[in-house]
């Protein structure tokens, strides 16, 4: 179809683009790689120069980190507990809300939908002061409840679920169950929820990662060291205690990013799919 | 909006007669109750506090009218925080949207027919899912002085004679913060824009090709105009996200040097939870932020309305 000159030009363009993409790829990976490599090097090695080849000092860095009271496993546990609980709550109640919005006709539905759209755009950060005072007044500082329960009203998840349900829902799906006398909540549990599995999986990943990475809210609500979440532990690495213990500091960062990198290697296809489908913002 | 999209009005009315619709309230109730408790109430509580003098360890709040708003207008640090927030966002967003558009164009070009697009996309997106707190600490150590990896590398290859103290320089620190934001988000923007391009009717491109349009002409004459609503959507969501910038500047330098990366949220956080615990000042700043966010969200609503004529069907 193309003349040879044109074909040659396209080949050249392609080559240049692949080079450019490779540079961007390195830009994505190198910062993490340097940190991971440095977590295996001793402080003098790190101060000598940049290296991309791991050394053999990982264990001693790890013991240094542990001796400073950097309890990464507790951090993993705390973050996991909060992320898992809030994800489950947000998935269940967002699906329920989306179902209500699609299946039923009731007064005030349009207003609720308007509220949900507004909530997507207005981030919780703008009301942290009121949130903090409210939580302090009801005595729930240093408690995970205010980090978990708000997930019941997760507007972006409702939006995504509703979009998905719109494409698969048909009244015939539930009519026969209704004739058989199944209750509405049972229909939701046995017919609708299973159908929503793909959307649930996508939002589970985003919900979990979003909560796992949350820093500001736990920072203002949690003081108790044993209750620190992972990002709060990471924050400790910037303090003076690690000014000289570079290896230990890099080990701390590495331990905080490795779980996400592992998860990403397995789930990136679904994550990219989710971003493509919904323009999801964390 | 929702009622008209599903083409099942008759059956819907049938269901209505069976009086299932009251379940709508029941199923919406948990969302509504938790919305009231954890979103609505804190927001109005914040607004209320912005009209009081609550500060320090006081427990009683007295109404002071608009005094806080007058004060914050004259608060140089807050003004700087607002300016900084916009500077950091613009310096990150302009290159981001340009690169994302180019990448989305290359990724979808049938003439180039590039291989491995999925692979590259997933790598460009990678930084986005990594904890922002960790990313901040990573960059603060990579750029650290005097013997951080970047300084050592530049010394070794002879680009510089003496190490650079990046976080002492206003310009450098701002550039680093903007770069991190750019680095974390261009992958996401690329994916959204690519999905937008893929949703454009293929026939338009075919027709243009028959008429002898080049790839670049199709891109500028067909793709770009049709992508306007999505671009606006990306712009405003990015702006609203940018207004909330906290983790990176706070953990990178704590807002310094010379408050050059002090953002609105770092200002709010520090006012409320450090030093004098000026909850009233923080609440007032929050209300200003809320007003800005609402204004920008309304723009998104309008962009949604223009987009409604041509719904974006996602994944390919």
Q: How does this model look, in words?
A:
The complex is a heterodimer of chains A (282) and B (316). With 282 residues, chain A is mostly helical. Chain A contains 14 helices and no strands. Chain B has 316 residues and is mostly helical. Chain B has one domain: MetI-like (MetI-like fold), CATH 1.10.3720.10. Chain B is built from 15 helices and no strands. The longest helix of chain B is centred in the N-terminal third of the chain and has 33 residues. Chain B is globular. At the A-B interface, helix 1, helix 2, helix 4, helix 5 and helix 6 of A face helix 1, helix 2, helix 3, helix 6 and helix 7 of B.
CATH superfamily of chain B: MetI-like
- SSE run of chain B: HHHHHHHHHHHHHHH
Total beta-strand segments of chain A: 0
**Fraction of residues in H or I helices of chain A:** over 70%
β-strand number of chain B: 0
The low-confidence runs of chain A, each spanning 5 or more residues with pLDDT under 50, are: none
What is the C-level CATH assignment of the largest domain in chain A? Mainly Alpha
Radius of gyration of chain A: 24 Å
- How many helices of chain A? The count is 14
Main sheet properties of chain A: none
CATH superfamily of the largest domain in chain A: MetI-like
Rounded to the nearest angstrom, the radius of gyration of chain B is: 25 Å
Helix content, binned percent of chain B: over 70%
Number of domains of chain B: 1
Strand content of chain A: under 5%
Sheet with the most strands, sense and barrel status of chain B: none
Structural class of chain A: mainly alpha
Shape of chain A: globular
**Could you name the CATH class of chain B?**
Mainly Alpha
Keywords (chain B): Cell membrane, Membrane, Sugar transport, Transmembrane, Transmembrane helix, Transport
Subcellular location (chain B): Cell membrane
Membrane topology (chain B): Multi-pass membrane protein
Pfam family, one (chain B): BPD_transp_1
């Amino acid at each position: 179809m193309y003349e040879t000159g044109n074909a040659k030009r396209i080949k050249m363009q392609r080559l240049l683009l692949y080079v450019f993409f490779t540079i961007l790829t390195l830009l994505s990976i190198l910062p993490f790689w340097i940190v991971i490599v440095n977590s295996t090097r001793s402080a003098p090695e790190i101060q000598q120069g940049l290296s991309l080849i791991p050394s053999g000092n990982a264990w001693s860095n790890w013991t240094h980190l542990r001796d400073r009271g950097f309890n990464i496993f507790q951090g993993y546990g705390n973050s996991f507990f909060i992320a898992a609980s809030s994800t489950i709550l947000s998935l269940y109640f967002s699906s329920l809300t989306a179902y209500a919005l699609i299946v039923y006709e009731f007064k005030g539905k349009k207003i609720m939908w308007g509220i949900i759209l507004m909530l997507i755009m207005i981030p919780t950060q703008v009301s942290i002061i009121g949130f903090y005072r409210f939580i302090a007044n009801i005595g729930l500082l240093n408690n995970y409840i205010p980090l978990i329960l708000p997930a019941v009203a997760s507007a972006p998840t409702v939006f995504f679920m509703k979009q998905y349900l719109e494409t698969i829902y048909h009244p015939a799906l539930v009519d026969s169950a209704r004739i058989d006398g199944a209750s509405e909540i049972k229909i939701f549990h046995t017919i609708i929820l299973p159908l929503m599995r793909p959307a649930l999986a996508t939002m589970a990943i985003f919900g979990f990662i979003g909560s796992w990475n949350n820093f500001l809210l736990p920072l203002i609500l949690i003081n108790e060291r044993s209750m620190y979440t992972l990002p709060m532990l990471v924050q400790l690495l910037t303090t003076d205690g690690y000014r000289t213990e570079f290896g230990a500091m890099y080990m701390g960062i590495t331990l905080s990013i490795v779980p996400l990198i592992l998860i990403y290697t397995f789930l990136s296809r679904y994550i990219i799919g989710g971003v493509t489908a919904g323009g999801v913002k964390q | 909006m929702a009622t008209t999209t599903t083409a099942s009005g008759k059956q819907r009315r049938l269901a209505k007669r069976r009086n299932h619709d009251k379940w709508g309230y029941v199923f919406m109730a948990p969302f509504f109750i938790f919305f009231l408790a954890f979103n609505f109430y804190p927001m109005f509580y914040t607004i209320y506090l912005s009209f009081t003098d609550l500060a320090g360890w006081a427990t009683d709040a007295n109404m002071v009218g608009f005094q806080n708003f007058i004060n914050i207008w004259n608060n140089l640090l807050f003004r700087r925080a607002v300016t900084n927030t916009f500077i950091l966002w613009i310096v990150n967003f302009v290159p981001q949207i340009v690169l994302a558009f180019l990448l989305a164009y290359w990724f979808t070009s049938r003439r180039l027919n590039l291989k491995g697009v999925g692979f590259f996309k997933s790598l460009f997106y990678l930084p986005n899912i990594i904890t922002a707190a960790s990313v901040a600490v990573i960059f603060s150590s990579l750029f650290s002085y005097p013997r951080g990896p970047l300084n050592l590398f530049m010394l070794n290859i002879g680009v510089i004679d003496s190490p650079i103290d990046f976080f002492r320089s206003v310009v450098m620190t701002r550039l680093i913060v903007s770069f991190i934001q750019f680095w974390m988000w261009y992958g996401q923007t690329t994916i959204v824009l690519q999905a937008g391009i893929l949703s454009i009717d293929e026939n338009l491109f075919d027709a243009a090709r028959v008429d002898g349009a080049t790839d670049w002409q199709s891109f500028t004459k067909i793709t770009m105009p049709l992508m306007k609503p999505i671009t606006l959507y990306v712009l405003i969501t990015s702006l609203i996200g940018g207004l909330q910038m906290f983790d990176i500047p706070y953990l990178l330098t704590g807002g310094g040097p010379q408050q050059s990366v002090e953002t609105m949220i770092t200002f709010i956080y520090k006012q409320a939870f450090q030093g004098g615990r000026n909850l009233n000042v923080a609440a007032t700043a929050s209300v200003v932020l809320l007003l800005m966010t609402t204004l920008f969200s309304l723009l998104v609503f309008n962009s949604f309305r223009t987009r409604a004529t041509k719904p974006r069907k996602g994944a390919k």
